[in-house]
Amino acid sequence: MSEKTTFTSHRGLELREDLIFEIGARDRSGVDLAPLRGVRDRLGGITREVVDLPGLAEPEVMRHYVRLSQKNHAIDMGLYPLGSCTMKHNPRLNEKMARLPGFADIHPLQPASTVQGALRLMDELAHWLKTLTGMPEVALSPKAGAHGELCGMMAIRAAIKARGEIQRRMRVLVPESAHGTNPATAALLGFSVDEIPASDDGRVDLEAFRDKLGDDVAAIMLTNPNTCGLFERDIIAIADAVHEAGGYFYCDGANFNAIVGRVRPGDLGIDAMHINLHKTFSTPHGGGGPGAGPTVLSERLAAFAPLPRVVAGKSGLELVEHGDQTEGGPFGRMVAFHGQMGMFVRALAYMMSHGADGLRQVADDAVLNANYILAELNGTMTAPYLGPCMHEALFDDAFLKDTGIETLDFAKAMIDEGYHPMTMYFPLVVHGAMLIEPTETESKASLDLFIATLRDLVASAKAGDTERFTTAPQLAPTKRLDETRAARQLVLRYRSTEKKQVRAAE
Amino acid sequence: MSAVKFTKDHEWVSLDGDTATVGITAYAQEQLGDVVFVEMPEAGKTVSQGDEAGVVESVKAASEVYAPVSGEVVEANPELEDNPALVNQDPLAGGWFFRLRLSNAGELDGLMDEAAYKAYIEELD
Amino acid sequence: MRYLPLNDADRATMLERIGVENIDALFCDVPAEARLDGPVDLPIHKSEMQVERDMHAMASQNMPAGSAPFFCGAGAYRHHVPATVDHIIQRSEFLTSYTPYQPEITQGTLQYLFEFQSQVAELTGMEVANASMYDGSTAAGEAVLMAHRVTRRNHAVVSGRVHPQYVDVIANLSDMGGFGLTHVPPTIQGAEDLLSSVDENTACVVVQNPDFFGSVNDYTELAEAVHARGALLIVVVTESVSLGVLKTPGTMGADIVVGEGQSLGNGLNFGGPYVGLFAAREKFLRQMPGRLCGETVDADGKRGFVLTLSTREQHIRRDKATSNICTNSGLCSLAFTAHLSLLGGNGLQHLARLNHEQAVDLAGRLGAIDGVKPINETFFNEFTIELPQPADMVVEALAVRGVLGGVPVSRLIPDGGFENYLLVAATETCAPEDMAAYGAALKEVLS
After folding, report:
1. Stretch 191-230 of chain C: residues touching chain A, C-beta under 8 Å
2. How confident is the model at residue C310, as a pLDDT?
């Protein structure tokens, strides 16, 4: 494909943009500040001479970031079928509510009497989360899904310690299909990780699981619906077995969006589960955070929930910020202050908008959309497990066999067609995995075009048009990037001197 | 130099007197892809057969390197720090990882010879 | 429902294509006894207008900082955020994008993360910085874990002048991870003896600048002494604007610098979401937690950016990862970097000086009130005053008079004998009349 070159390196509406360090200057600024009065300072001479950072005037800043933004794919632009990530529509009402000064402009350590509405909002959110999950307690403070996972596992560790079993109960069972955060979290807390194999139907092998149980098992960490997009049919038996062995059941709630309003985790025997507000409850992913990971806890773990907690006091709601350090109480603190308030507001606005009836419809439509994709594409692509699936449809790379095209190439070709690729190479239990999560906010027309596009790509692959894949993407802001070079010759920050040397050498 | 021996974890080991040189096989580097970093044991460290002795990383994967035999680490390949690509370019010679002073030569007998290793990787594919 | 595009006709067609009777059939794997047959006991859906009404009702029960003379700090600071910043972070392409796993269609995010890392490194005086953490407190906890990995030691010493909730976060992570910790009892002033707690098991010493009580410190000598004992120095910064004027932790000899970046670009938000800064010496790079963005080229040789060194992270290393962290604080780091790009180096320095002048002004005004005793010799934009009565009562009384007068030390350290101490912060947002109103109200409360 020959490409038109331009004098400016701009390409029509796609505008090249250099680093702020190359276009800005230290003495330029887009902020007008009051003049200094020159009072005698109290800094003790512990000062710096210069801050060598570039500044830009307001119009330049606006242009810089708008140009950068145009190099991103986003849900607001098109289907973003990243399995396990739940890229659904982010309602703008949520943004508007989070910016109300009564929520956005309050300090975390103002007197409780001046933040009663904020505490009420937290209490209300807690009520919704507890009701939807059928659990008695929730810790709101975790800052992200993995942080919530840490919270749940800390509660379990504290409970085991309180039982006096911390010396011997240090093994955690994790299915091999688990998110990487699960083993990482367990290891962070000193647990050893023992993998449970999957059965042929993409679920936990119940017998293999039972064989691994023993009085040294602290917990099982299980994702449900699991990372293959399937509901663990034996979940109640799994819960019973782990409880019988004296362990706890941690559920990775990343996929709660598939079952919200349909199933309550509390009815399944789960002891702890984090909820990604940015998945199930539509808070924006923001290019990788901030998320929020409130963690619901069962009766057995409720007492160990971390600080702070919102409680009803004599004169309204109060924050409990200190606990006695006796065993059997709060296990400690996960964050300074009280958690991701901005995300709480957004999530509650979403819950109130949907209501109990709408949230159930959310799960129904998410599952329906995924099954529609599975049904329409199975045969064209290859699905390793039989349906029905839950909110995401899993394919493997068997359909690419002998085409010379790999999962990665296939994904990059989707970029040229205007799609963000699905999750690739995860879960690890499937060869060349492609995990598609359409979410409930896609229309049938959107799904139909997506399905037709994938069929067209598969036809090309089978017809031997490897170039469409191996040289893709051709139409994105950049061609394929050299990740090996990035890792071998690390450049992690802008350095003016090095830059000049490189330029001189060119 | 004696014949090269291989492990199921795709390390190779060759013996020169009581010094064993260890690296990863051509098959292993191919599976990993472009190697971007190698973490090696410090000289003086004692390792037992099967112990984790280092890590080799590509962009997408990281994999432990196990000591194929027991012994004391004598030196690590200094060139890999700046040029990890050697592992891809010359896995069986210039891309060696570390050298051990062997403590139990008998352990070598339990490893595969070239023919056996070849058969082993064919089975994997 | 306004967020759901499917209608009943679509649903019927799709079910037919799938080959099932009804939607319930797709939930057949759920154990029958656990299936809910109807909506849970919560209110039903509401219109946008109704949700706004309910939310306004809750928001109106709070007293926003902007509605009152406001002087709270203690780890969260009210600065003016330019309108441009909020516009930028609401751009669809930033707001509704995910982690940049597909670099060809996320160069926007990746480039600003690279710029962010560069800015944080320069601000802290360190060699490398990551693409942000959840917040300052969790960054501090991760820094201590990193020090254990780097030194292969198992004990940390934490100054009594580190933000108490940061200490709680560090203590919790250390305890759960099986590491020891010595927390030096908090004292407001005078020399703090940290070194006597340092021994051959000490991985790191953690200090804060400006410290929790507001004082500015030079840790250069401490850094040398800590290094001589084979340990690392971790410097915590909870007010990132201070980096615009204070000697950098890097210059002092810090090995790891963690900070709360909220002050730049991010509002108070009742405590979150915020953005954690994490910077270190380059030689410790591989032990760093969190995402890193690196420069590279594409197939045409054109400059581009990718996430790099991912092999440290949980999705590859699983139980051997440097941390379980799976995300950063993307949008908040965008707010940070956009605000900093607007300010520029000189602008940030000016803003920092302005904050300091405000605080000097306020300290003078409050110190002139009978019974009020300013404590700090040095400070940046926050200082501690001693009152003749418990600070929490004073703060309540001030709130009744429409003034948010600061944070009682006892709110964070309930049993340290600090009942009468109050932390007071002043930023560029405090107008002279706010300070006058504060002085008058405090005088009234104390009389």
Report:
1. 216-218
2. 85
Together in a domain, A341 and A433 = no
Q: Is the peptide bond before C289 cis (omega within 30 degrees of 0)?
A: no
Q: Name chain B contacts of C310, Cβ cutoff 8 Å.
A: 59-60
In CATH, the architecture of C83-339 is 3-Layer(aba) Sandwich (3.40)
CA A411 to chain C, closest CA, distance in angstroms equals 9
Q: How far C394 CA sits from the closest chain A CA (Å)?
A: 11
CATH of the domain at A308: 3.40.640.10
Q: Could you please report the per-residue DSSP string of A136-188?
A: SEEE----SHHHHHHHHHHHHHHHHHHTT-TTT--EEEEETTS-THHHHHHHH
Class in CATH terms, C71-78+344-446: alpha beta
The residue segments making up the domain with residue A416 are: 361-477
From residue B114, give the alpha-carbon distance in Å to each of B23, B69, B99, B106: 14, 17, 20, 18
Q: Rounded to whole angstroms, what are the CA distances from C257 to A150, A266, C140?
A: 23, 42, 8
Quick check: is A32 in a domain?
no
**Nearest-angstrom CA–CA distance, C235 and C229:** 17
Contacts of C286 in chain B (CB under 8 A): 37, 39
Token pair 């051997």: residue: C320
Domain boundary among A304, A322, A351: A351
Model confidence pLDDT, tens digit, residues A269-327: 999 999 999 999 999 999 999 999 999 999 999 999 999 999 999 889 999 999 876 67
Element (H, E) at A217: strand A217-223
Is C43 within 8 Å of A355 when comparing Cβ atoms? yes
Name the neighbours of A, counting chains with at least 3 Cβ pairs within 8 A: B, C
Say if CB C418 and CB C410 are below 8 A apart. Answer: yes
List domains and CATH numbers for chain B.
5-124 (2.40.50.100)
For residue A447, being part of any structural domain is answered with: yes
State the helix-helix crossing angle for A341-377 and A444-462, rounded to 10 degrees. 50
Task: Using the predicted structure, report yes or no on whether residue A501 has a pLDDT greater than 60.
Answer: no
Tell me which residues of chain C, numbers 399 to 418, contact chain A at a CB-CB cutoff of 8 Å. Answer: 399, 404, 407, 411-412, 414
Residue A63 within any structural domain of the chain: no
Q: Do both A252 and A164 map to the same domain? A: yes
Q: Which of residues 19-38 of B touch A (CB under 8 A)?
A: 33-34, 36-37
With CA atoms as reference, the chain A residue closest to B38 would be A488
ipTM over 0.85: yes
What confidence tens digit (pLDDT) does each residue in C267-284 have? Answer: 999 999 999 999 999 999
Same domain, residue pair A368 and A277: no
Do A178 and A316 lie in one domain? The reply is yes
**Separation CA A325–CA A331 (nearest Å):** 8
Number of domains into which chain A is organized? 2
Mutate to test the interface with B, among C101, C283, C287, C311 (most CBs of B within 10 A): C311
Domain C-terminal end among A323, A351, A379: A351
How far A494 CA sits from the closest chain B CA (Å)? 21
Closest-CA residue of chain C to A391: C26
Question: Which of A89, A106, A240, A341 would best serve as a mutation to test chain C binding (most C beta carbons within 10 A)?
Answer: A106
C193 contact partners, CB below 8 Å, separation of at least 6? C184
Domain ranges of chain C: 71-78+344-446, 83-339
Mutating which of A426, A431, A480, A488 best tests the B interface, going by the most B Cβ atoms within 10 A?
A: A488
Domain of A368, CATH number, reads 3.90.1150.10
How distant is the alpha carbon of residue A157 from its chain centre?
24
Q: pLDDT tens digits for A394-446?
A: 999 999 999 999 999 999 999 999 999 999 988 888 999 999 999 999 999 99
Q: Does C167 touch chain A (CB under 8 A)?
A: no
Which residues, other chains included, contact A209 with Cβ-Cβ below 8 Å and sequence gap of 6+? Answer: A173, A196, A220, A238, A241
